[in-house]
Amino acid sequence: MESGVRMPLRPYLSLFLLLPDRFAPEHQFLKELVQDVNANEVDPKDRLSDNVYHYDAKERIFELAEKYERRMEERSHDKMLAKNKERRSVLSELGNKQKECSGFEKKQGCATKKTVMEI
Q1: Name one Pfam family in it (predicted).
Q2: How far apart (Å, rounded) are the C-alpha atoms in residues 74 and 56?
Q3: pLDDT at 10 over 90
Q4: What single DSSP character describes residue 29?
């Protein structure tokens, strides 16, 4: 699932590259690349930033790549918690139904099932 593009290389005024998420390397690698280019190739007056950015097209959010990755980790964690809560509530409901059913009295005249061992 592609949610946006990274804007990895904007180390100076005349360079701006966009990479789709599926082709972009880790943001830390891109950040180191930008820092290296800025330090060794770009005149200080032309430098913009050592940062790497991400645009989430689905959410329409432009943010630092680090912040995007934290947001995605939190979203994943929240989904996992919601799934666990749902699973626990189903088990809890099953337990309540078992307790409810165990309180019913057996009908008179009904034979109980015999197990193989009793036969």
Answers
A1: DUF5688
A2: 15
A3: no
A4: H
